[in-house]
Design goal:
mainly alpha; flat
């Protein structure tokens, strides 16, 4: 390789690391700013959610505000489950599901995009040790089975943002990721929105939950886990894929 080629390669690597540093700095800054706000207002996560409901409830611009907040949610690591319940309280079971589906999938793409900026291109993954080689094979297999992998994790209720960030870092293809997220997170979305639609306030606790909504949510949860287990059995293990 020529000296010019080496310099260009070093320059590219420097730019990549600079990009990552900027993304991490902005991300951490947003998290710290949110934590400072939480501390200054002395509100818990649930109390912040209720304050949001009180602020936008009944407003014509409520849906737009809700979607914007949901887009910012993965950046500050605000729980998706809480905000999904809020969607049920604000918009009811039908409109609530529609709004939350749009907002949740958009927020998943935000987290995916951040993860992609932080991850390394597939061609740059090195496997100089057994552990690195295993990680490389696992990442490659996830990329080759992006849809099934993400779908199973969504149906198993693996932490929402963790899946999104991981998918971006591993550079899974965005279209299978989005479709799998939309399909796999639907049962959880419906169950949490149903619970939310039976409440007047997010801080009511279990006493305010409608029994029918609770039963429906639990049934959807169980069915989701059952489907995930069936799909998991069909998916070959990493070891099988690497020894074939």
């Amino acid at each position: 390789m020529s000296v010019v080629g080496i310099d260009v390669d070093r320059s590219k690597r420097s730019m990549i690391w600079l990009q990552r540093a900027i993304v991490v700095a902005i991300w951490l800054g947003a998290i710290v700013a949110w934590q400072i706000h939480q501390t200054s207002t002395e509100r818990t996560t649930v109390e912040s959610a209720q304050h949001f409901i009180d602020t936008i409830g009944g407003s014509w611009w409520g849906i737009f505000a809700y979607v914007l907040v949901y887009l910012a949610r993965p950046i500050v690591l605000f729980p998706a489950s809480v905000l999904t319940v809020v969607g049920g309280i604000l918009f009811g079971p039908v409109v609530g599901v529609l709004v939350v589906v749009v907002a949740a999938n958009a927020s998943a793409m935000v987290a995916y995009g951040i993860g992609r900026l932080l991850g390394r291109p597939p061609g740059n993954v090195e496997s100089t040790t057994d552990n690195a080689s295993l990680a490389h094979r696992w990442a490659t297999r996830m990329r080759d089975n992006s849809f099934e992998t993400v779908l199973i994790m969504r149906l198993l209720f693996v932490p929402y943002d963790l899946v999104s960030y991981l998918a971006g870092i591993l550079r899974l293809r965005w279209l299978p990721f989005l479709f799998a997220t939309a399909l796999g997170s639907l049962p959880g979305t419906v169950s949490f929105v149903l619970v939310g639609s039976s409440l007047d306030r997010v801080d009511q606790g279990v006493d305010g939950i409608d029994s029918i909504a609770l039963i429906a949510g639990v049934l959807i949860f169980v069915v989701s886990l059952g489907v995930a287990r069936m799909l998991r059995r069909r998916q070959p293990t990493i070891a099988e894929g690497t020894t074939a």
